[in-house]
UniProtKB/TrEMBL annotation:
Coiled coil: none annotated. Residues 241-299 form the DUF4351 domain. This is Rpn family recombination-promoting nuclease/putative transposase. It comes from the Bacteria. It comes from Dolichospermum flos-aquae CCAP 1403/13F.
Length: 308
């Protein structure tokens, strides 16, 4: 289960969530932006960096590391990466903080003695999710974090509880993004089940998710227009179905273009030829793509074979 990527997706949607883990968050926590950065010479890739708004002048940069497997050189790497990044960007930031998220203390690096000064510094925060407390008493976002640590026997009931809280505490469209995150966590946790089976387990349907809401709105508008032109109820239903499919294609292409820039006409043609069920899978899979090469590989596997 790729928990680190799930956490970083969650932080992309709700950057201020990181600061709910801290006892002394910055006063402008809501204005921070989540990003991934690269540091050259030598090259380090830091997945979780929270950048203060540039309009406030020099601010505090927060580094975040999500660690669900033991790494006996984790602190060596964190010290090197954060120090070098801060050095390269010294004029932009006045201070730094590090937040390291573990499922439990058992996952932490064994030999921490060489880093005792670093780890005991007020600038370093080690968070153990299993010590956060009762999930029903935690803020919703922290409850979603804790969901990633639960076993298959506990997770479904907790996920349903969090979905109920989502409906009660968050207004659309943010509620749809949170529902997507909870569902995605459960899909990763129950890898032997399809997304539809997971949705059935959680008591929700595709119609409640963000992607469906977007394509439904676009598709209905296109379908109504086509139905009016044909003047037939059958034409209306067919038009809505075709409209939803075309809207899904448009949505996928927009998402890919936003992430990777211009998409070739050849790839657009390949995407446009996919059936609706496969398009829906692509709209989820592309969230994990790192480059257009991932898209090409995915299309080679999932494009239906042509028959004579």
């Amino acid at each position: 289960m790729r928990r680190d990527s799930l956490f970083y997706k969650l932080f992309q949607q709700y950057p201020s969530l990181l600061f709910e883990l801290l006892t002394d968050p910055p006063i402008n926590a809501q204005a921070y932006r989540f990003d991934s950065v690269a540091v050259k010479e030598p090259t380090f890739a830091i997945d979780g960096v929270f950048l203060p708004p540039e309009s406030d002048g020099q601010g505090v940069v927060y580094f975040c590391e999500v660690q669900f497997q033991r790494d006996e050189e984790l602190y060596e790497r964190i010290c090197a990466e954060t120090s070098l990044y801060f050095y390269r960007n010294r004029k932009r930031f006045c201070d730094w903080q590090v937040v390291i998220i573990y499922p439990s203390r058992n996952t932490e690096q064994n030999d921490i003695y060489p880093h005792r000064g670093f780890l005991n510094s007020p600038q370093v925060h080690r968070v153990y999710l299993d010590e956060l407390g009762d999930i029903q008493e935690l803020p919703l976002g922290l409850g979603v974090m804790l969901l990633t640590t639960l076993g298959e026997s506990q997770a479904p009931a907790v996920a349903r509880y969090l979905l109920t809280r989502t409906h009660e505490e968050i207004v659309t469209p943010s509620s749809q993004a949170m529902m997507e995150m909870i569902t995605t966590i459960m899909v990763y946790k129950f890898e032997n089940l399809s997304r539809r089976e997971v949705e059935s387990m959680l008591g929700i349907t595709l119609k409640e998710t963000r992607v469906y809401q977007e394509i439904k709105e676009e598709g209905r508008e296109e379908g109504l227009e086509q139905g009016r032109e044909e003047g037939l109820e059958e034409g209306l239903e067919q038009g809505i179905e075709q409209g939803i499919e075309q809207a899904t294609i448009n949505l996928v292409i927009r998402q890919l273009t936003k992430r990777f820039g211009k998409i070739s006409q050849r790839k657009i043609k390949s995407i446009s030829g996919l059936p609706l069920s496969v398009l829906e899978e692509l709209s989820e899979a592309l969230l994990d793509f790192q480059s257009l090469n991932d898209l090409q590989s995915w299309l080679l596997i999932h494009t239906p074979a042509k028959t004579d």
